[in-house]
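My hope is that you will study the protein record below before we discuss the fold together.
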Amino acid sequence: MKQYEYRVEQIQIELKGIFKALKSKYNEEIEYRLNLLGERGWELSGVDGTWFYFKREVNTYQNK
């Protein structure tokens, strides 16, 4: 049976930036943070407002 570990990250959203020309800068920052977690094996599994939920499979053989 697969086992997972979980991580919760809060990524602040600045609404002022979304509605101005800074929107692309905001998107770049979010992409950077999500890609960084993805490189470390974390998979985005849900979003609730500014809370981002990630999971990654745990190699149980490695921990024994």
